[in-house]
Amino acid sequence: MSWRKKDTIGLNKITMSLADKLVSSFLAFELDTNILSPVHKIRTEAIKEFEKLGFPNKKLEAWKYTSLKNVLKEDYTIFSKKKNVLEFKNIKNYFLDNTETYKLVFVDGFFDPFLSQTNHDGADICILSAALTKPVYSKVISKYFDTSINKKDSLSLLNTAFSKEGVYIHIPENKILEKPIEVIHFATGNEAALMLQPRNLIVLDKNSQAEIIETHQSLTSNPIFTNSVTEIFVAEDAHLDYYKIQNDTLTSSLIDNTYISQEKKSIAKVHTFSFGGKLTRNNLNYFQKGSYIDSIMKGITIIDENQLVDHHTLVDHAKPNCESHQDYKGIYSGKSTGVFNGKIVVDKIAQKTNAFQKNNNILLTDKSTINSKPQLEIFADDVKCSHGCTIGQLDQDALFYLRARGIPKKEAKALLTFAFANNVLESVNIPSVKSKIKKIIANKLGVDLGFDL
Amino acid sequence: MLSIDNLHVSIEGKPILNGINLDVKAGEIHAIMGPNGSGKSTLSSVIAGNEDYEVTKGDIVFKNENIIELSAEERAHKGIFMSFQYPIEIPGVSVTNFIKTAINANLKARNESEMPANIMLKKIREKAELLGIDSKFLSRSLNEGFSGGEKKRNEIFQMAMLEPSLSILDETDSGLDIDALKVVANGVNKLKNKDNAVIVITHYQRLLDYIIPDFVHVLHEGKIVKSGDKSLAHELEEKGYDWIK
Q: Which residue of A has its CA nearest to B114?
């Protein structure tokens, strides 16, 4: 590691110190985990690569607008020593109302069996630590685990190196899951600063269906840094409906790396609702590996103060006759910053591709910023690709119109905000998710929910 | 009900209204006519509380209270309604939900409880019928893709729902064919009673064949230069605006 000591810029040194700490913790981690596990080699390779690359910095094009400097400066505990006990009644507000779900709950990085309901009846809804060690899962693990991630992405590599716990979901052929799966990662503040690295593997076999809701929730003001990796495989004719609810505290940061591989005629839909957190980076990557695939990405971002939300999407259209639809809405106030970077690659054999991308933004204050960039790399000639980006303010004439009918300014602004975000909300299929999102938005805008759209 | 005294209004430093005096009592219909650019729409916007305009002098007293400092929503709560010349399109908000939100916001401001859903629906149905509005229309996004006639009809529908004391109809006749004009005028007449008042702002006399004014005022260069009864409107129709300048 001596070459790194040559770095003379103070901030780099601080950044490196967390990287160094991680690298040096790895050995202890491996000894402590199962060194005989088939993924031992994968982890070891990953830490070597991470050691070479380090954390991303602003010199990298993909990290031009998002600096991790302030997130990395904390002295994070890499593995929490003790398990905190949470009582359901104290955290039940974080779950969906009036909806029966399979629950997978993690507390400070540990699986909590008392708050969770795992399932093996007709589908495996359980945890990665079991899947990585029990022989019954080894076939699925060797087929899928770590096969889709970007081996040049240092954060994904870092997560792989420390991959130990997270969600393991396997829906077999023709199974339509009747209840949604709720995944919540709690942080309780039992460490002064804690880093979490959940690793999730989700496999939907042919013609199966599942709905999944993922939340990261800190219950403390201690700094929390989550670097999550989720690999999802959606087989032929399977249908995935995934919701990410990001409404964490202002001392929590999240890097979400999601990789979705789709086979022919499958549909994979991801809604990302970003309202909370200090820094949130979503790397949402879709790989289309068959024909007649539909990939759908939708997002609503509403942030203020010094929050930053960065959506980096990638759709790799590698086969003919597929579609992708992206619709991201953002509303920024305070000194908040938004980033949208939507990359669409259309391979030369991917004829008849339809790829649509929309990113609409409202800046409510002079000091808020949005950096929006479409990135289209099209090598086929018979394709339909469109992208549109708008940046504006709330329509003052519309505001006056509503106020002239007696709707107070704050409520009028909220109504216009809901209207702006409405077509994203409309595609939410689980009513209790929709009402939860509406409630969070109303809360965020400081209004009573006096209207439904 | 409404008393405007020596009202001067500017926009971005440019004077538009130069000393308007107007008295409107409950039960009356007033028409304000004038050529383009005379300040008609400015007057209605200022009464409704549009903050783009700056009142440099004078008072607007409504129900014995000076409302110059009040916001648009506070004026609406007191019973002032303006039918917009160009109603705004608001995609994503249906007509029904918009009107529900507006009614409940007004009730809340008056410390009254929300209108029960069944009563609201009944009222919506009743008023829609009065204005010949199809129920399908009510679930569409507010004014989005509406024809000129549909937009104006929707404005009068909102007036019918909100039951204001003072209604200002800003160029409600523009963009309407004669049948739509009759429907709108008929709606206004049915809503009229001894306790409310209407100000009709129009360039042309034809709406005044259907909504009969008690008083007609002619606005020119930001001042009321002539007032009279309904015969003044006919005179303007024959002679044009040149003779009063």
A: A450
- Domains of chain B are 2-87+148-244 (3.40.50.300)
A116-120, A387-391, A443-447: least confident range:
A443-447
**Any idea which residue has 């992708």 for tokens?**
A324
Task: Report the gap between the CA of B93 and the closest CA in chain A (Å).
Answer: 6
Which pLDDT does position A27 carry in this prediction? 85
Chain A residues closer than 8 Å to B101 by CB = 407, 411, 415, 450-451
- Which residues are paired to A294 by β-bridges? A267, A323
Contact B105 A408 (CB under 8 A): yes
Q: Which residues of B touch A401 (CB under 8 A)?
A: 84, 87-88, 90
Mean pLDDT over all residues of chain B?
92
Cα–Cα distance for residue pair B238/A422, rounded to 1 Å: 51
Distance from CA of B105 to the nearest CA of A (A): 6
Cβ atoms A440, A417 nearer than 8 A: no
Q: What are φ and ψ of residue A172, in 5° steps?
A: -75, 170
Contact A170, A140 (CB under 8 A): yes
**Sole residue written with tokens 């997270």:** A166
For residues A266 and A295, the answer to whether their CB atoms sit within 8 Å is: no
User: What is the pLDDT, as a whole number, of residue A15?
Assistant: 47
Q: Is residue A453 pLDDT above 70, yes or no?
A: no
**pTM of the predicted model as reported, rounded to 2 decimal places:** 0.85
Asked if A411's CB is within 8 angstroms of B105's CB, the reply is: yes
DSSP string, A434-452: HHHHHHHHHHHHT------
Q: Over the range A38-57, which residues count as b (16 or more CB within 10 Å of their CB) and which as e?
A: ebeeebeebbebbbebbbbe
Residue among B51, B97, B102 minimizing CB distance to A405: B102
Query: What letter would DSSP give residue B239?
Result: H
The phi, psi pair for A9, rounded to 5°, reads: -75, 125
Using alpha carbons, list the distances in angstroms from residue B16 to A119, A207, A422, B11, B21: 73, 69, 39, 7, 14
Whole-angstrom CA distances from A314 to A65, A374, B56 are 17, 10, 56
Residue A75 distance to chain B (closest CA, Å):
46
What are the CA-CA distances from residue A278 to residues A275, A290, A302, A307, B174 (Å)?
10, 38, 13, 5, 52
Instruction: For B105-145, write each residue's pLDDT tens digit.
Output: 999 999 999 999 899 999 999 999 988 888 888 989 999 99
* A400 chain-B contacts, CB cut-off 8 A: 50-51, 72
ipTM: 0.95
Do the beta carbons of residue B175 and residue B148 sit within 8 Å?
yes
Whether residues B158 and A405 touch (CB distance < 8 A) is answered with yes
Q: How far is A398 from chain B (nearest CA, A)?
A: 6
Q: Does B162 sit within 8 Å of A400, measured CB to CB?
A: no
Instruction: Give residue ranges of A with CB < 8 Å to any B CB.
Output: 395, 397-398, 400-409, 411-412, 415-416, 418-420, 422-423, 450-453
**What mean pLDDT do residues A285-298 have?**
98
Write out pLDDT tens, residues B10-57. 999 899 999 999 999 999 999 999 888 889 999 999 999 999 999 999
Q: Which of B72, B93, B100 sits opposite A404 (nearest CB)?
A: B72
